[in-house]
Amino acid sequence: MKKPEALIVGAGIAGPTLAYWLARNGYRPTVVEHARQLRSGGSAIVVKGPAIPVAERMGVLPQLRELATRNRSLTLLDPAGKRVLRLPSSSEGVEVTRADLSEVLHRSARNDAEFVFDDTVTALNQDNGGVNVTFRRSAPRRFDLVIGADGMHSTVRRLVFGPEQQFVRDLGLYGATVPLEPDAVDDPTELTMLTAPNRMLVVHPSRTTPLAIFTFRATRTAPHDRKNIALHKQTVADAYADVRWRAPELVAAYLDHPAPYFDPLTTVRMSSWSHGRVVLLGDAAAATALLGDGSSMAMAGAHALAEELAAHHGDHARAFAAYESRLRREVQPRQRRVGLLSRLLVPSTRSGLAVRNTVGRAIGRTNRTSSRETTSAG
Hints:
By secondary structure, the protein is an alpha/beta fold. The protein contains 11 helices and 18 strands. The protein has a 7-stranded mixed sheet, with helices on both faces. Strands 7-2-1-11-18-17 form a 6-stranded mixed sheet.
């Protein structure tokens, strides 16, 4: 009997995870990725919560622990660069770079799935029996199912559900990152964060390549032109022009890089994640900026979708509905908190900074107390 064929658009985190599980549940997965290869670099993320048992069942958790960053503490600085407090990093989950996670997941899935790079979909036409897919480079093909795992700016979502503006909500913040030279950090175990009103600047040691991370509210809204690198650089330079500490040096690194990352921080909210034989997964369906668990939710969602497709024996409509119901219970509380979190992480006033730092001190005292109690008990 011919195996059903599924096209997965996007080879980041959700895509290869889903390919791995679909192959084990009787499907022939094909993954198409518009980039020419797996992407390098990227911020560190924490594999945690519902993603941990998924990683365990895939057999990749030991590899992730070997690739874990060495970050052990977080130091908060005031606008002048003076240390406010130092907190131990959370012991929850495994922190790795996004690129390392993507590579590990790809290696797990590549023997059981077809991966096509430097290509993407340009049209999707479905009927009762399947989906006819037109690609930018490859010949047209027909699939039983199509899954959009292609991120915040999903092409599948645009083709099937409508323009991005219908579903994407800005938080009023921008995120920008640039890789740094290895000697840009003195302590490879310490993450340093400076916060001034409306601006946050982080130096993250990572494992091999440190990163400068800019999170800010711009004085004027920058256009959503993802290709206008010159405008992105000017926006970052303007936002941090009066910030002290290492800001001039880090902004200079951003300006010197040929293609630094820049994007508005947004959430994605949709009334439905599926239409016919097409379903969305990960950030394409329900991005939640700032919470730091997008990759974990992508892995958990991919596993849930594969489980539901197997449980409903080819009834994709029931499987999609069950998958969406499961994941919305996880996603919706996070999306309700994201506005408050954005104001707490990047306060707009000095009084807001004081509140944030008071909360941080309280957390630090709680963590130290818990650590002493654990040590005493041991």
